[in-house]
């Protein structure tokens, strides 16, 4: 096992990794920008190294400074968290070249899944169901023919896409050339690559993803699904495990398909296969080769510490359990408490004046904020994650309601008031929502 791990991240996820390390008896090194000298992850780690000025490009994304921090402190492995360098294959390459360990999959798999066309072709060959579309890049000349074949509406997607950018819907043939040129333009600007492909646009899907763990001894297991259909601008705001739309048989079936596919691929570490789900069918959209923000809901219903397993796997240890040891107990929901206006989602950085976290049975609050902490304006607006777990979905919703009413984050705007409304909405209570539900709901409130 490693003696010392460097965490190449900040905020709640840096704390999450530090906590796992402490329980495993591993020393921790935090990195931080000059804007984060007072941050909680710096206080909780055993050591810390300043890697640059506030701008992420010069600090949390500064690969030479991060490698130097490892060398200075003697850290043997790097946990990238999510975001920042977590899906950067070059970073994983460089870590390897320096004789250090990247806590994550191989650079080859990161690269493969980072390109959407390659990812889709690869998983299709491995037997994972995909959205009907232009199997590969689509040219302006072919677009109309391909769209007729799959049938309107169609979605133009950037192969280098991420965060919902470079994605445009064409409802009819008349919209097609406009959708193509805007998607290409957005993709070129955001990713420096204007290659696009086409998919059938699903009208009312849910977003359902499968969490997997794979060790270096050929064992692959799935930890069930998460339903992340409540989204705004393709950003998740509320996640559940399991999905209100799936039964145990469907879970076993899709879990089995994914597990088999990743075993064939020789995948290593934690990963998530994201699907759209409509009318009882799954359609692959992408694979995330890293830890996800919403991993705690899976931890709640399985009792498995996913970060601990990531570290064990990276150290070459075998998974300590097989598929039939994994039992799903109860239901869990996570709400992303962002430092944003609850309805317009405009960022609201500033000083936390009052702070009180809810407690009690089945309540977890993952956060790096504290009373008097000043949220810097340079990074993303996630201030905390409220996770509740209960015997079934109904009890979980009631627990969430009371936990949200206890939570106080004063001095800035947060998304708490939005969740206080959502948890009382009949469609949410009934589990009856697609990926478009939240935007329609916000529009109905006049936003
Ligand atoms: P990104 O990497 O930009 O997040 P994804 O491929 O994961 O892109 O898609 C993001 C979101 O876009 C999905 O969660 C879903 O809401 C929507 N989406 C993607 N593909 C389709 C599709 N074929 N039909 C309908 N919606 C889609």
How are the SSEs ordered, and which strands pair?
Blueprint: E1 4-7, H1 11-24, E2 27-33, H2 40-44, E3 47-52, H3 63-73, E4 77-79, H4 89-97, E5 101-102, H5 107-114, H6 116-125, H7 140-150, E6 154-162, E7 165-170, H8 176-191, E8 196-200, E9 206-214, E10 220-232, E11 235-241, H9 248-265, E12 269-278, E13 281-288, H10 295-302, H11 306-314, E14 331-338, E15 350-351, E16 354-356, E17 363-367, E18 374-375, E19 382-390, H12 393-406, E20 408-410, H13 416-422, H14 426-429, H15 437-444
Helix pairs in contact: 4-5
This protein binds adenosine-5'-diphosphate.
Adenosine-5'-diphosphate binds at residues 131, 155, 161-164, 199-202, 205, 207, 231, 234, 274, 276, 285-286, 435.
Number of domains: 3
Helix/strand class: alpha+beta
Quick one: how many beta strands?
Answer: 20
Q: Give the cofactors and ligands.
A: adenosine-5'-diphosphate
Q: CATH class of the largest domain, please?
A: Alpha Beta
The total of helices stands at 15
Give, in spatial order, the strands making up the sheet with the most strands.
13-12-9-10-11-14-19-17
Q: Work out the radius of gyration.
A: 21 Å
CATH architecture of the largest domain: 2-Layer Sandwich
Beta-strand residue percentage: 25-35%
User: On the 0-100 scale, what is the average pLDDT?
Assistant: 97
Instruction: Give me the CATH superfamily of the largest domain.
Output: ATP-grasp fold, B domain
Largest sheet: 8 strands, antiparallel
Distance between the termini: 51 Å
Q: Name the helicity range.
A: 25-40%
């Amino acid at each position: 096992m490693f003696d010392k791990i460097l965490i190449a991240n900040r905020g709640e996820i840096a704390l999450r990794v530090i906590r796992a390390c402490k329980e495993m008896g591993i020393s921790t090194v935090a990195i931080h920008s000059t804007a984060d000298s007072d941050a909680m992850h710096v206080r909780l780690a055993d050591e810390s190294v300043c890697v640059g000025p506030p701008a992420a490009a010069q600090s949390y994304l500064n690969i030479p400074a991060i490698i130097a921090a490892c060398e200075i402190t003697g850290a043997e492995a790097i946990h990238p968290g999510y975001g920042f360098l977590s899906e950067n294959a070059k970073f994983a390459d460089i870590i390897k070249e320096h004789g250090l360990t990247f806590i994550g999959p191989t650079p080859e798999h990161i690269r493969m899944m980072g390109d959407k066309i390659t990812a889709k072709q690869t998983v299709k060959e491995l037997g994972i169901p995909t959205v009907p579309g232009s199997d590969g890049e689509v040219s302006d000349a072919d677009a109309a023919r391909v769209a007729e074949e799959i049938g309107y509406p169609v979605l133009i997607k950037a192969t280098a896409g991420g965060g919902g950018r470079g994605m445009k819907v064409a409802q009819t043939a008349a919209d097609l050339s406009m959708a193509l040129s805007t998607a290409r333009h957005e993709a070129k600007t955001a990713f420096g690559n204007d290659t696009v492909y086409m998919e059938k646009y699903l009208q009312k899907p849910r977003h359902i993803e499968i969490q997997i763990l794979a060790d270096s001894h050929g064992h692959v297991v799935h930890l069930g699904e998460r339903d992340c259909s409540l989204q705004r601008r393709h950003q998740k705001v509320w996640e559940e495990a399991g999905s209100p739309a799936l039964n145990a048989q469907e879970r076993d079936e899709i879990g089995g398909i994914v597990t088999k596919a990743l075993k064939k691929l020789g995948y290593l570490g934690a990963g998530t296969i994201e699907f759209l789900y409509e009318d009882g069918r799954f359609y692959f959209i992408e694979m995330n080769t890293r830890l996800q923000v919403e991993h705690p809901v899976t931890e709640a219903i399985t009792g498995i510490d996913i970060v601990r397993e990531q570290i064990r796997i990276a150290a070459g240890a075998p998974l300590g359990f097989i598929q039939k040891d994994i039992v799903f107990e109860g239901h869990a929901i996570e709400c992303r408490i962002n430092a944003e206006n609850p309805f317009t989602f405009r960022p609201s950085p500033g000083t936390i004046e009052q702070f009180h976290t809810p407690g009690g049975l089945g309540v977890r609050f993952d956060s790096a904020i504290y009373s008097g902490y000043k949220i810097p304006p340079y990074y993303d607006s996630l201030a905390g994650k409220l996770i509740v777990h209960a015997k079934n979905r109904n009890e979980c919703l009631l627990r969430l309601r009371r936990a949200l009413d206890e939570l106080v984050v004063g001095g800035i705007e947060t998304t708490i008031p939005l969740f206080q409304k959502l948890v009382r909405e009949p469609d949410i209570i009934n589990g009856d929502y697609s990926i478009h539900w939240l935007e329609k709901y916000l529009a109905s409130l006049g936003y």
